[in-house]
From TrEMBL:
Parts of the chain that traverse the membrane: none
Cofactors: Zn(2+)
InterPro entries membership: APOBEC/CMP_deaminase_Zn-bd, CMP_dCMP_dom, Cytidine_deaminase-like, dCMP_deaminase, dCMP_deaminase-rel, Deoxycytidylate_deaminase_dom
PANTHER family: DEOXYCYTIDYLATE DEAMINASE, DEOXYCYTIDYLATE DEAMINASE-RELATED
Family to which the UniProt record says this protein belongs: Belongs to the cytidine and deoxycytidylate deaminase family.
Annotated ranges, domain CMP/dCMP-type deaminase: 4-133
Gene source species: Aquirufa avitistagni
Source organism phylogeny: Bacteria, Pseudomonadati, Bacteroidota, Cytophagia, Cytophagales
Keywords: Hydrolase, Metal-binding, Zinc
Protein name: dCMP deaminase family protein
Length: 153
């Protein structure tokens, strides 16, 4: 039986997450359009700056910001979107596959870039101990199709 594109792209997002240098969470993303990959990303500091698992090993990771999140990292979705944009790829109408549902900041970027569909593997709210997935709620409120990967299997 042939694998679906959803399973192929989510499996790739999971593999990409393993490239992350983050010591706390490893997240991968695959940005697609018309069954083609237009960009990939994983979380971590901007290229050419730091690698948290190497440069902040003794400290248990990079410094925290005021909300307790990584102060140096870009999220996987941000990296995928930035790379696609930097290279002139058409992002509008695309689908993004992520191993962790988008946080509210990433959700605003996803919406602003006119990405039409988000498929996520795990819940950001569950990971962070939050009452709800703010990013998912935001995207759904404004018409973006957001689906938990387990719901499409």
């Amino acid at each position: 039986m042939k694998p679906t594109f959803d399973s192929i792209y989510m499996e790739l997002a999971e593999k990409l997450a393993l490239r992350s240098h983050c010591t706390r969470a490893q997240v991968g993303a695959v940005l697609t359009k018309d069954t083609r990959i237009i960009s990939i990303g994983y979380n971590g500091p901007p290229q050419g700056t730091h690698n948290c698992d190497e440069d902040f090993h003794e400290e248990g990771g990079c410094p925290r910001d005021s909300k307790g999140s990584c102060s140096l990292a870009l999220h996987a979705e941000q990296n995928a979107i930035l790379y696609a944009s930097k290279n002139g790829a058409s992002i509008e109408g695309s689908t993004i596959y992520v191993t962790l549902s988008p946080c509210i900041s990433c959700a605003r970027i996803i919406y602003s870039m006119k990405i039409k569909r988000v498929i996520y593997l795990n819940s950001y709210a569950a990971y962070k101990g939050l009452a709800s997935d703010e990013g998912v709620d935001f995207l759904r409120k404004f018409g973006v199709d957001v689906v938990a990967y387990k719901d499409i299997l």
